[in-house]
Specification:
The complex is a heterodimer of chains A (147) and B (372). With 147 residues, chain A is α+β, with helices and mostly antiparallel strands. In chain A, 45% of the residues lie in helices and 27% in strands. The chains are: A alpha+beta (147), B alpha+beta (372).
């Protein structure tokens, strides 16, 4: 049960982190009362790769990241780490993370997470479809002496 | 004697004001916006992110605008900004096997599982100027076909596409790169010390100047250190970045970056300990940076001569001190350009010295003349 909860939470935190900030703001314009445990703060995460894709780690370079932690009036704590420098995005994502641990989860799932997930799927599928259209079909030429 | 000199404040201020005016250019032409640069100058943005060593397309676009399109100046701005950011965490190593790919080609195997996907490439274009781009035309439109890459419905992760090198690995024909858990050294935290291990070299090269890395790679192809490289695989796409969140105790995918990865397959005749087999060079760069990633993998392979028991021929691309101490364009341009700044006192000393030497030489010549 704990494991399922963790998997689910990883899923929504990731969706909120990768969501376009303006979309999340449009889907979730009003935030219920909360206090900031950690004000939105922008920093960097060092992105690492693997040597030869499979070997030891190496430092590729950093990316910007903004994090925030909030506590709702009911005491539930929410955290967010989101890509980029948008502080409102981090705060909104932290509130959403907290709400997803409360009775409000089902509503939030329908109103915010499902549309975000569907939009991310559509964007990914559209790009993959363009890539698929550039896939090479080889055909072998018949050599003269074989004919 | 050292004499402090002050002055020029007004000249500097006016110079900067003029710079701002020149940056804007002709006011009858609409001003560039950051989103325009980000979307339409994407490869320049990618280069600034790679060499600035900070993935943030908006900031890279801003830097390009501020630098008037001088990409090294833009990289400089990004590097300076980067130093102001607290480091939150190290990511888990990204899984390029799970990349959502725009492009994936192999020069070694025609029929590879997953296929050859060209993506939005300049390859096979005729390099003729397209005058239609000077006129406002209709928006271009890319063809689309149903893809297996997008995964099954409701499954948001792209399928794992094995790397080409794993096919050679199955037959033991290529060296393996076993995974380790060691934390790699970080040249942004500790001064670069030699000898550098492969992880440190890759960090240096991936943020190194594209032109410099390109020329070094080219030099190995022309015979200054040999790499005999085939592009085993080149892939471009987006990978998830996963970070262990300390306050939660588990890892979350907190973002996505576009990467270009190149794996070369290189000839290797074997050594005392290793049988003849193929060896590998590796390139991984932020953004769609194909030239850089191919060049990176050639230089990576070239620098591995010692580990593979090859001869050092004195080629620049084999010399890690030469490569790592000269590939950073911010270090290079900082040292190069500082010589244009006031050196009045240094030069005064040189001038005195030359005058004294000339006087001495003259006196000596006169003495010799008198003696004869």
């Amino acid at each position: 049960m704990m494991k399922d909860q963790t998997t689910a939470r990883k899923g929504w935190m990731s969706l909120l982190a990768k969501a376009p900030p303006e979309r999340l703001a449009a889907l979730m314009p009003d935030l219920p009362p909360h206090v900031l445990l950690r004000s939105p703060e922008t920093g960097a995460v060092m992105v690492r790769g693997r040597i030869g894709a499979s070997g030891g780690a190496f430092n590729l370079g950093e990316m910007t990241m903004t994090r925030c932690s909030v506590r709702m009036d009911c005491g539930t704590v929410g955290h967010a780490w989101v890509q980029g420098r948008d502080k409102a995005h981090a705060r909104r994502a932290a509130v959403a993370d907290a709400l997803m641990q409360t009775d409000a989860a089902a509503d939030l799932q329908t109103a915010v997470l499902m549309p975000l997930s569907a939009e991310a799927d559509r964007a990914r599928t559209a790009r993959a479809a363009k890539a698929a259209a550039t896939k090479v079909d080889f055909f072998t030429m018949v050599r003269g002496e074989d004919a | 004697m050292y004499v402090a000199v002050k002055g020029g404040e007004r000249a500097i201020e006016n110079a900067h004001q003029w710079l701002a005016e020149e940056r804007r250019g002709d006011l009858s032409i609409p001003e560039l916006t950051i989103p325009q640069i980000r979307e339409q100058m994407k490869l320049a943005v990618n280069r600034v992110m790679a060499e600035g060593s900070l993935y943030d397309p908006d900031l890279a676009a801003l830097a390009i605008k501020q630098a008037r399109g001088d990409l090294i100046e833009a990289v400089f701005l990004i590097r300076a900004y980067r130093t102001t950011l607290p480091r939150f965490a190290l990511s888990n190593p990204v899984d390029t096997g799970a990349m959502a790919m725009d492009r994936r080609i192999s020069a070694t195997f025609k029929d590879l599982p997953g296929g050859q996907v060209l993506g939005p490439t300049f390859d096979y274009t005729h390099r003729l100027l397209d005058f239609a781009l000077m006129a406002e035309g209709e928006a271009p439109f890319a063809a689309a076909l149903p893809s297996t890459q997008a995964g099954a419905e409701g499954d948001d992760a792209p399928p794992h596409v094995p790397h080409v090198t794993t096919f050679l690995d199955r037959d033991g024909l290529i060296e393996t790169d076993p995974a380790t858990d060691t934390t790699p050294p970080d040249l942004t935290r500790e001064p670069l010390e030699l000898p550098a291990d492969r992880a440190l070299r890759l960090q240096g090269i991936t943020r190194g100047d594209e032109g410099f890395i390109l020329s070094l790679a080219y030099s190995t192809q022309r015979g200054y250190g040999r790499t005999h490289a085939f592009v085993g695989e080149l892939r471009i796409g987006r990978v998830a970045v996963e970070v262990d969140i300390p306050e939660l105790g588990f890892a979350v995918e907190v973002g996505e970056v576009e990467l270009t990865e190149c794996e070369t397959v290189n000839q290797f005749k074997g050594s005392k300990t290793e049988p003849p087999q193929f060896t590998r060079g590796y390139g991984l760069v932020f953004g769609q940076s194909e030239r850089k990633s191919i060049a990176m993998s050639l230089v990576d392979r070239s620098l591995r001569w010692q580990e593979l028991g090859e001869d050092f021929t004195g080629a620049p691309a084999q010399d890690e001190e030469f490569v790592l101490y000269h590939c950073d364009n911010i270090q290079a341009t900082g040292f190069l350009e500082h010589i244009k700044l006031p050196h009045y006192v240094d030069f005064q000393a040189e001038l005195e010295l030359v005058r004294r030497l000339r006087a001495e030489a003259q006196a000596q010549a006169q003495q010799q003349e008198a003696a004869e």
